Amino acid sequence: MTDTDELYTIIDRAIDEATINGRFLFNMYTYLKQNKWTRRETNEFIESSSAAQISNLVLELEGYLKGGDKTLKEAYGHLSKPKARKIKDYCYKILEDAWKYHAERRPGRKKGSKNRPK
Fold first, then answer.
1. What is the structure's pLDDT at 5?
2. How many other β-carbons are positioned within 10 Å of the β-carbon of residue 77?
3. Domain-wise residue ranges, the chain
4. For residue 115, pLDDT beyond 70
5. pLDDT band at residue 63 using 50, 70 and 90 as cut-offs
C-alpha cells in the first residue's frame, strides 16, 4: 500500500469515526509532517478526488446547517446540528492542514534561517 492509499484509508476511517462515534482522532498536519510528505505528494492529495469529496461533504453539511434544502435534511437529518457543525469543522480542518503544509513546503531557503547573508 502506497502512502497516498494509506492516507485515504486513514481519512475515510477518521471521518467515519467522527460521524458515527463523535471522536475526532486524526490530525492531517501531524500525519503529513511525521511521514515527511513532499510538496508534490501533498499537492496530489489536494487535487485528488478524495479531497474533492471532503470539500463536497463540508459544503453539504454547511447547507444542512443553514437549512432549506429538503434533500440535505433527509441525508443528514440523523445528525444533530451541533454534531454536524463539529464534523464540518473537522473535515474542513483536514483540508486546511493539507493547504498549510503545502504552503510551508515551498522550495527555497526558510525565512529567518541561520545561513542567511549578514
1. 87
2. 11
3. 3-104
4. no
5. very high
